[in-house]
Write a structure and sequence with these properties.
It comes from Neosartorya fischeri (strain ATCC 1020 / DSM 3700 / CBS 544.65 / FGSC A1164 / JCM 1740 / NRRL 181 / WB 181) (Aspergillus fischerianus). The chain is an alpha/beta fold and 331 residues long. It is built from seven helices and 16 strands. Helix content is 30%, strand content 29%.
Length: 331
């Protein structure tokens, strides 16, 4: 039972893992592979916190992902996944009625109003995970290598082209922004992000959402934290915007009450990061179309959805193969 996957980002890699765990023979074709430093794919540039989102679909997918990374953080710290304390703030809602994951995450606590930063109407704390993509992506590739998953480095022009390279009947399209062309999906759009890796010993994740999008995410083994950010739909400028750097630091100090007040952008920034999130207007696509399983369009939540999506992909692959067997049995 052979399955081909287009794309080696976090969705493609975790899908390969779930399929290999079920006994499938898996091959991945991708333009970029773990370890590559190209801006043409998103997964290396993610924050990357496992942060469920209150207003998005697929709560079951996010729940399965949370469970996977929670177990991984406790089982294998060489994966680059760590448990962190999280504080979330919102200024566009005043109660936690929409925070569905408060019944799932450990140590959930709503914050009293006197503990909220400027203009925040809601705040709460819990435990989750932060992922260092620079460690995690090579770690999962090594795991897949040991399980016999094969990798082909190639840029594919179409799904049929991928099928000719992989020689598999079933194809998983986890091509991210590439799906705009490969799936002829005009809803796919790039969303620019810009962050900074700043020297810090903090192990706390902080997220402010609503009128602005500001966050701090620890990066295991790096000696720093990622601070951001922006979400600029349709912007594909690869250059670091200096005004954005200054604004991120200003907002971060507002949210954390001056925690980064001593940061000098000319001295304490280890690295500037620019990436392009694979978004899709109207939400992600996770469905079967004949012998193709589409899994793309997760925007900022690729890591948060990843393993749950992988389990759904495996379910759809199994259904596709069973359908093919039934059709052959009728011939």
């Amino acid at each position: 039972m052979e399955v081909g996957i287009i794309g080696s980002g976090v969705i493609g890699l975790t899908s390969a893992l779930a399929l290999a765990q079920a006994g499938y023979s898996v091959m991945i074709v991708a333009r970029e592979l773990p370890g590559d430093d190209s801006l043409r794919w998103a997964s290396p540039w993610a924050g990357a916190g496992i942060l469920p989102y209150p207003d998005s679909a697929g709560q079951d997918l996010q729940t399965e992902t949370f469970k996977y990374y929670w177990a991984l953080a406790h089982r294998d710290p060489t994966s680059g996944v760590q448990v962190v304390d999280v504080t979330e703030y919102y200024d566009d809602r005043s109660d936690d009625a929409t925070i569905w994951y408060k019944r799932m995450v450990p140590k959930y606590r709503r914050l009293p109003s006197e503990e909220l930063p400027a203009n925040a109407k809601l705040g709460f704390q819990y435990q989750s995970m932060a992922v260092n993509p620079a460690v995690f992506l090579p770690w999962i590739k090594a795991l897949l290598d040991r399980r016999g998953v094969k990798f082909i480095r190639a840029e594919v022009a179409s799904i049929d082209h991928a099928r000719s390279l992989l020689k598999t009947e079933i194809i998983v399209n986890a091509s991210g922004l590439g799906a705009r062309h490969l799936a002829n999906d005009e809803k796919v759009i790039a969303v620019r992000g810009q962050t900074m890796l700043v020297e810090s010993c903090s192990h706390e994740m902080v997220m402010f959402q609503g009128s602005h999008y500001t966050y701090q995410i620890p990066r295991m083994y790096s000696g720093g934290v990622i601070i951001g950010g922006v979400s600029q739909e349709g912007d594909t400028d690869e250059r670091v915007n200096l005004a954005t750097r200054t604004d991120i630091l200003r907002r971060m100090n507002l949210v954390t009450r001056g925690r980064f007040g001593s940061v000098d952008l000319n001295k304490h920034v280890v690295k500037d990061l620019v990436g392009f999130r694979p978004s899709r207007k109207g939400g992600y696509r996770l469905e079967r179309e004949g012998g193709v399983i589409h899994a793309y369009g997760f925007n900022t939540l690729g890591y948060t959805y990843s393993y749950g999506v992988a389990l759904k992909v495996r379910e759809l692959v199994t259904a596709a193969l069973e359908e093919k067997r039934r059709l052959r049995g009728k011939l």
